[in-house]
Amino acid sequence: MSITLKNLSKTYGTQKAVDSISFDIPTGQIVGFLGPNGAGKSTTMKMLTGFISPTSGSATINGLDIEKDALEVRKLVGYLPENNPQYTDMYVAEYLHFVASVYQLGKNAHSKVEEMISITGLTPERKKKIGQLSKGYRQRVGIAQAMIHDPKVLILDEPTSGLDPNQLVDIRNLIIQLGKEKTVILSTHIMQEVQAMCDRAIIINQGVIVADDRIELLTSNDKKRQEIEVEFIEVVDKNLLLAIDGIKEAHPLKGNGWKLISDKKTDMRVALFEFAKNNQFTLIKIQVNEHNMEEVFKDLTKKK
Amino acid sequence: MIAIFKKELNHFFSSLIGYLSIGIFLLITGSLLWFFKGGVLDYGYATLESLFNLAPVVFLILIPAVTMRSFSEEKNMGTLELLMTKPLRDIDIILGKYLAALVLVIFSILPTFIYFYSVYKLGAPVGNVDTGGVWGSYIGLLFLGASFTAIGIFCSTLSSNQIVAFILAASLCAATYWLFDIISDFPMFSNGLDYFIQQLGINAHYKSISRGIVDTRDIIYFLSVIVLFLAGTKTVLESRKW
Q1: Which of helix, strand or coil describes residue B215?
Q2: Which residue of B has its CA nearest to A105?
Q3: How many Cβ atoms sit within 10 Å of the Cβ of residue B143?
Q4: Which among A4, A90, B190, B219 is most buried, taking Cβ atoms within 10 Å?
Q5: Interface contact flag, A50 B85, Cβ < 8 Å
Q6: How far apart are CA A174 and CA A221, in angstroms?
Q7: What does DSSP say about strands A226-232 and A257-262: parallel, antiparallel, or unpaired?
């Protein structure tokens, strides 16, 4: 169930929400679709699920054109829209039965509904109205309705936004568990999420793809830049720090902490320890910051 | 389509909407027909005319109240996106919602058969009622209700605010019902145009069917109104893709 986008564009008036993006997702990959708010993530997902039409370009899911074969495509896709819209006055089981009948599950409907309720952990809440559920449970209902027809492709628009840390972990695990053997695109602006769940990240900014690679490659520290956080007990003059070979920038942090930027590839911790010893400073913290998704994201989306 | 139809019907009858609109329709028509001055008992003739004069006016308010939420609420809550990305054709969603609202209208008309039965029994001699006229009027009322429902569904796609949808629908229903009659009364149309203008309105066709003659022209008129507004609904829903 591969997904292919070719020069997909969407223009609202004169504003280009999505500007000719192309990518190809092979079967079974979990892809994080990243970007700041308003980058065009939701617009792309709405086009893929056939809610809106692209201005130009085309996309196929499993070889089916998203416009010409819209109904067939929708049968293959499970979609959780942004903000997880729900019929708040329906009961959990009632709502899932409704979704099952929309997908024409027929005789399987009942067992499917029960299966989804137990997989998503909704059993204790099944007799409540959706409007009475907490945000985490509501999100589970949203995921259950997207998965009930056992879709080959899952499109989840910000599935974890607004959840507390415990719910966040639960929902993530649920997606990882249910996403096995499926092609999944999920959008988010939380970087750790992509690192935790996805094989690959596509970063989009102002409607254009700015990066598309496997997570390991995006985060690998190939740049000639190291960031080290240090803290001393004593007050240390900035110029002294800048005098250390390899230190290019020094930014004060709270207390007597400093964020140091080095352009050397060698481990700067040794030099810093030597520096403290020679100047009789008491070094109480030294930490090399990993080049993580967050920074990759910041770098890529800040430029414009 | 059936899934949507069931869901909508469930919504009407699992909330107060269904019972309230049926109840109020029966309360207003019943009290005016039987208890208030000018009702059947007062008037002295075995006729249901006052019911059929009044029912369209009650529908004018009640039907927009029933249909105002159908698409407005979905738009407002974002659930329209949920529906539109399911393997459903737009027309399935529209017809499901339309038919559910129509069933509610039919359910509010059905109990008035009791009125007919009572008047039938009260006639002297028993059964001295213009039965053909009554059946014609019922058919007319059904078509009128079906047209108002189509107008109401159409208006609810125009706004995500239910009150706006209600006001639009009530005004549009009133306009199609009365406005052409009023315009045809203008002196400048007394040259024969007035007839054609009258024929554009619902009232002329409703009155015509009420006489007990089911004329294909009237049926075609009502069906055209329904199709026109349901097609309009489809166009508005598709406009999200433009």
Answers
A1: coil
A2: B3
A3: 22
A4: A90
A5: yes
A6: 31
A7: antiparallel
Contact A155, A78 (CB under 8 A): yes
What does CATH list as the number for A226-296?
Answer: 3.30.70.100
Chain A partners within 8 Å of B241 (Cβ):
52-53
Helix runs in chain A, H state only: 41-48, 70-76, 92-102, 109-119, 135-147, 165-178, 191-197, 215-219, 238-242, 268-279, 293-302
Contact B82 A53 (CB under 8 A): no
Q: In Å, how far is A152's CA from the nearest CA of chain B?
A: 14
Task: Profile chain A (304 residues) by mean pLDDT over runs of 10 residues.
Answer: 88 88 90 87 92 91 90 92 91 93 90 91 90 90 92 91 83 85 87 83 89 78 71 86 84 86 77 87 84 73 65
Please write the tens of the pLDDT for every residue from A259-292.
888 877 677 788 888 888 888 889 888 887 766 6
User: Which CATH superfamily groups domain A3-218?
Assistant: P-loop containing nucleotide triphosphate hydrolases (3.40.50.300)
Under 8 Å between Cβ of B38 and B50: yes
Question: What is the Cα–Cα distance from B13 to A284, expressed in whole angstroms?
Answer: 69
Name A50's Cβ contacts closer than 8 Å, sequence gap at least 6: A66, A67, A70, A73, A74, B84, B85
B3:A87 CB<8 A: no
Encode A178-212: b = buried (16+ Cβ within 10 Å), e = exposed. Answer: bbeebbbbbbbbbbebbbbbbbbbbbbbbbbbbbb
Determine the residue among B6, B8, B11, B82 to mutate to test chain A binding: the one whose Cβ has the most chain A Cβ atoms within 10 Å.
B82
One fold for A3-218 and A226-296: no
For chain A, give every domain's residue range: 3-218, 226-296
State the nearest Cα–Cα gap between B77 and chain A, in angstroms.
6
Give the Cα separation of A35 and A204 in Å (integer).
5
> Of A49, A52, A74, which is closest to B241 when you measure between CB atoms?
A52
Please report the DSSP string for A212-251 in residue order. Answer: EEEHHHHHS--SS-EEEEEEESS---HHHHHTSTTEEEEE
Tokens of B239: 């406009």
Q: How far apart are CA A106 and CA A17, in angstroms?
A: 39
- Give, for A65, the enclosing helix (H) or strand (E): strand A64-65
Contact at CB, B82 and A89, closer than 8 angstroms: no
ipTM surpasses cut 0.90:
no
